[in-house]
Amino acid sequence: MYFRDIIGLQDVKKHLIDSVKRGLIPHARIFYGPEGVGKLPLAIAYARYLSCENKGSEDSCGNCPSCHKFDKLMHPDLHFVFPVVKSKVSDEYLPEWREFLSGNTYFNLNNWLNFINAENAQGIIYSKESDEIIRKLSLKVYEAPYKIMIVWLPEKMHDACANKLLKMIEEPPNNTIFLLVSEDLENVLQTIQSRCQPLNIKAIEYDEMVASIQTVYGLQNEDATSVARIAGGSFLKAINIIQSADDNKYFFSLFKEMMRSSVSRNIKAIKAVASEIASIGRETQKSYLLYCLRLFREFFICNLNEPEMVYLNAEELTFGERFAPFINEKNIQPFSDEFQLAYRQIEQNGNAKIIFLDLCLKGTMLLKQ
């Protein structure tokens, strides 16, 4: 990955490049910010630039031996640590990790865990990973100016692993650089944070998002601007919106049926829509409930007459013009609580028919408020 592969963030790229040119290279940085803005690609591009033999004014050269090795993520002085499963260490998943990165620039932990078929296992950086890190970094630099250790999601690091690395991060071996990439800084061990220079990676600029969406997905300007607005500066979210467009249309159709049947108090219609939702599979049901929670939030905001704060597509907005007044300060919190409860019940393998019939009936009462 090169700086040019990363959407927007021009100020951050310039800062990183200028710091290298001036020789201001901290031994430990922590890149943090919202999901899907390109923090890990940025860390890899920075590592490439540090190692490049013919650095350009705006990016690595792409032609030197170091860049060719970075193209395959197989540079001997580049090391990765990332969440894994089955009590393994990162190196045991390194071939899959390289393959995954070669096909993905913007992703999250769930994407990675799905790629390695983790099923229901949680990704963790296990305690024994610290021994591997210490072993690798105790070796001399092979050919680059620095040994670089990129730790993706240090918040997933087992406490024993984190505590064991404190001394090394504070006083690393000569010519060693730690690059930590976090999406949840509050859950990174405070003593690790204090040993790293923080770099806040903010949302991707709106114009850059629109242009990239049009280029990558060939959307018309109106559709691209709608996606960029809803995505809120996360290109990963924009990807998910585009890829789930058909699902969202179906979810919107279900939502309208659900709300209309509840407003009309038509028991037959309520039972019909509850049965349909109960038949679509648990993961789809969970996605539908999250979609509904988003719509409730947006329809509530519609009532505040602050259109710049509303993130709805044209079809949702048209429906919202009539439906939004039903979502108000009296029922927005109960709606949120009930749909979150349904999400948890579905996650715990509750009876979907009972859950959604109950939810529809509760909706009937809440819409009266």
Largest sheet: 5 strands, parallel
Structural class by sheet pairing and helices: alpha/beta
**CATH 2nd-level architecture of the largest domain:** 3-Layer(aba) Sandwich
What's the total count of β strands? 5
User: How do the helices and strands follow one another from N- to C-terminus?
Assistant: HEHHEHHHEHEHEHHHHHHHHH
Per DSSP, the total helix count is: 17
CATH class of the largest domain: Alpha Beta
- By CATH's scheme, which homologous superfamily of the largest domain applies? P-loop containing nucleotide triphosphate hydrolases
The whole-number mean of residue pLDDT values reads: 91
Which shape, going by the Cα principal axes? Answer: elongated
Report strand order across the widest sheet: 2-3-4-1-5
Tell me the Rg in angstroms.
Answer: 24 Å
Give a verbal description of the structure.
There is one protein chain. The protein is an alpha/beta fold and 369 residues long. It has three domains: 3-202, P-loop containing nucleotide triphosphate hydrolases (Rossmann fold, 3-Layer(aba) Sandwich); 205-233, no CATH class; 244-366, Up-down Bundle (Zinc Finger, Delta Prime, domain 3). It is 54% helix and 7% strand. The protein contains 17 helices and five strands. The protein has helices at 10-21, 39-51, 65-71, 94-103, 109-115, 129-137, 159-170, 190-193, 206-217, 221-231, 235-243, 245-264, 267-278, 282-302, 314-323, 332-347, 352-366, and strands spanning 28-32, 78-81, 147-152, 176-182, 197-200. It has a five-stranded parallel β-sheet, with helices on both faces. Helix 10 packs across helix 11. The chain is elongated. It starts with 9 loop residues before the first helix and ends with a helix. The relative contact order is 0.10. The mean pLDDT is 91.
